[in-house]
Design a protein that fits this description.
- By secondary structure, the chain is α/β, with parallel strands linked by helices.
- Helix content is about 35%, strand content about 25%.
- The protein contains 11 helices and 13 strands.
- It has helices spanning about 35-45, 60-65, 70-75, 80-90, 105-110, 115, 135-145, 205-210, 225-230, 255-265, 270-285, and strands at about 1-5, 25-30, 30, 50-55, 95-100, 120-125, 130, 150-155, 165-175, 175-185, 195-205, 240, 250.
- The strands form 3 sheets. The chain has a 9-stranded mixed sheet with strand order 5-4-1-6-11-8-12-10-9, with helices on both faces. It has a two-stranded antiparallel sheet with strand order 2-3. Strands 7-13 form a two-stranded antiparallel ribbon.
- The longest helix is centred in the C-terminal third of the chain and has 14 residues, at about 270-285.
- The termini are far apart.
Length: about 280
């Protein structure tokens, strides 16, 4: 299967850091967020990855390309471990790029990749969401193979957080698996049909490409993927699986900081020292 990774957003929550640096290239424990996404796709057997990029995103392309000058420098210095790391990045997968002329919403970004995806189901992976354990995409694929329908990943969020996400309504047909009846984009707490938020991982059928050109701009004047999926739902079933171990949304400064701390604490290299540092800092307050 192919994977599409929308990465054309402006990253306004991180300004001024993202004035010229893509938010997807912000580091999380030593490597950029977007590399975690690509590695997750590769671990699930994906070798064809389409990035939807835009102005100011050249750093993403450079990251997954060869860097002969850097490789030569590392080789001359005898730093074989870092050389191996750097070379491996460009060999992860076949990465292709399509530019979204201006950010007009996630639905428009997906539409930009229609020609590359063709008439096949595909993974859609948001470029600022990290799912580190690798369990999500295989579960999406297994559900697709079972039902022959689009499948999305959802996660429970606190009620006061539902307005940040698309939220599903549906029937839980077995533990952790829902058949959808509706989707609502960034509802208020009062309007939310559940606390199950769409969590940045989808397996979509080509039907979405048929309906997207007919979707009117929604919230924020953008073409919302959630609105397109509501149209798909009129003629095809859509299912949702609840992520068993969750993931990390790095789309805000606070969530990005929390992601760094959580993954660093779990790291054999940094965990023990960081825990001591955090304890010392908290005692000083």
């Amino acid at each position: 299967m192919k994977a599409m990774v929308p990465a054309a957003g402006l990253g306004t929550r991180f300004l001024p850091a993202t004035k010229e640096q893509p938010k997807e290239m912000l580091p999380v424990v030593g490597k950029p967020v977007i590399q975690y996404v690509v590695e997750e796709a590769v671990a699930a057997g994906v070798n064809d990855i389409l990035m939807i990029t835009g102005r100011g995103k050249r750093a993403i392309e450079d990251h997954f390309d060869r860097s002969h000058e850097l490789e030569s420098l590392l080789e001359r210095a005898g730093n074989t471990e870092k050389l191996r790391e750097v070379c491996a990045i460009s060999e992860l997968a076949n990465v292709f790029y399509v530019r979204q002329g201006r950010p007009r919403g996630l639905g428009h970004a997906v539409m930009c990749g229609a020609q590359h995806m063709g008439n096949e189901p595909f993974f859609l992976m948001l470029g600022d969401v990290i799912v580190p354990n690798g369990e999500c995409l295989p579960r999406l694929k297994a559900a697709y193979e079972r039902f022959g329908a689009s499948v999305i990943a959802v996660a429970e969020v606190e009620p006061d957080q539902v307005s940040r996400f698309g939220v599903i309504a549906g029937e839980e047909i077995e533990p952790g698996l829902w058949r959808l009846t509706d989707l609502v984009e960034k509802p208020s707490v009062a309007e939310a049909p559940s606390n199950l938020a769409i969590f940045g991982r989808y397996l979509l059928t080509p039907k979405v490409f048929e309906v997207l050109p007919h979707i009117a701009p929604g919230r924020g004047g953008e073409i919302q993927l959630t609105d397109a999926l509501r149209e798909v739902l009129k003629t095809e079933d859509i299912y949702a699986i609840k992520t068993s171990t969750g993931g990390f949304d790095t789309g805000t400064i606070l969530s990005w900081l929390e992601t760094n701390i959580t993954l660093a604490l779990a790291s054999p290299e940094y965990g023990a020292a960081l825990r001591e540092s955090l304890q010392r800092l908290m005692e000083q307050r």
